[in-house]
Fold:
Amino acid sequence: MRYAVMRWFAIVSGVVGLVADVLLVLFYVVAQPWTDTPRDTWLGFANDCLVIVQYAALIPVVLLLSSRRVWTVVGTVAAVTVVVFQLLLVTGALPFETQVGFVSAASIASMIWAGFVGLPLGGRVRTLSRVLLIGLPVALAAFLLGTLVTMVTDVSWAWVAGGAVGAALWFVFPAWALVLGVRSAP
Structure:
């Protein structure tokens, strides 16, 4: 029963997270928030709301899956942090500029949690766990290099190119949850 509940929440978290990620990509394509005249669109708000559902559904997964206390604490604090700060954002209690750092750090902590707790599970979950654990330092290095190139050469898009690896991981994480939920063996 416990495993069935965890699988259900993992599937919800994964599916909702993938939809949220697609909406976020569409938001950047359509709204172009980095320009002087960003377009008004519902896509960003929809993404923000879905991220709340994604991480709220992840909390039971963390509590039911983590076998070591340290990973349970890391995963729970990270997921709760995302839910709380996203709620503060969508209710207007906190501006994006303040919220984004906390949510980004907590999202990365969630990916680290998933990477470590997924390694012993085997199969595709283990593969995606490895992608998260290897990809995170690579993504950080690429983003920092891209940001440095942007600052030094004034090539405004270099930080975006540097962030592409990290953007890919934002899709791997909900895919990890979905695969965890649909895999057949406990």
